[in-house]
Write the C-alpha cells for this entry.
Amino acid sequence: MDNNQFHFTEELVVQNAEGTGNRRPDIVCFVNGLPLVVVEAKRPDSNKEGKSTNVEAISQHIRNQKQDEIPHLYAYSQLLLAINGHEGLYATCGTQDKFWAKWKEEQIPEAEFVRLKNHKLSDEELNALFNHRPAKDKTDYQSLLAAGDLTVTDQDRLIVSLLRPERLLDMTRLFTLFDKKAGKIVARYQQVFGIKALIERINTFDDTGAREGGVIWHTTGSGKSFTMVFLSKALIWLEELAQCRVIIVTDRVDLEDQLSRTFASGGVLTDRDKKMQWQRLESV
C-alpha cells in the first residue's frame, strides 16, 4: 500500500481519438499515474420527472468510451462512478446502462461514514480545494458546516467504500476480470463480501486444524458462475492460499459445460487445461 501514489484531478482535458475536440470527465483518480477511476458527477435535480440525473452520467460514460471519443482514457480504468450528490452507481468499462449497480457496504460502520463526511479540514486542505474556485464556493461550504453535521448520502457511501486506497486496490486485483464474451466485469457487493467471508473461513482453523464449512446461496441468474471465478482468482493471487484446490460438484452435464466455459473465458483456465480437467473428472 505504501508503495503506491494516489492522486485525483477535476475536469481532466482529454483529446478525442480523431483530434477534433476534447472531453472533460468530471473527476479522474490516478494510482501510480494510471487513471483507474473515472467519475461523472451531476446535479441532483433532474429536468426529467421520475428520472435520476445519474442516467445522464452513465450515458456520458458510455458515449465517451466509443471509438471516436476518448476510449484511450478508459483503457486503463477499472471502476466507473456516476454520482449526483445523493445517489451513486458503479460499473466498469463496457458495462451496459442496465447493469450499473448500487453498493451496500458490510464492513465499514455507519459511524465512520458520518465521521469522514464531517471531518474538519485544515486551512491548507481548504485552500487546496477552493483557492482556484470562486470565493462564493468556499463561503457556501463553510455555511453548510456551520449549520451542523452533514447527512451521509448513498453517494458518500459509494465513494468511501470503493475509493479507499486498500479497497480500490482489492477491487482492481481480485474483483475485476476480463471475460472473452462479456468483456470487463466488476463484482457486485454481494460477491465481494461473500468471497471475503470465504477467504476468512478458509484461513481459520480450530484447535484440531480443521476448518468449518459454509454455504453461499444464489438465486438463478445472480452470477454464481462468476462468483466461482472471482474466488478462484483470489485463491491464485493470495500467496497464503495459492496451494488450495477447487472441486466443483454439479447435478447436470449442461451446468458442467457452462461452468467450464465461464472459467476458460474468464482466464482462470486455458482451453487446454479445461479439456484436461473435465476429461479427468469424466474418467473418475
Remarks:
- The longest helix spans residues 189-202.
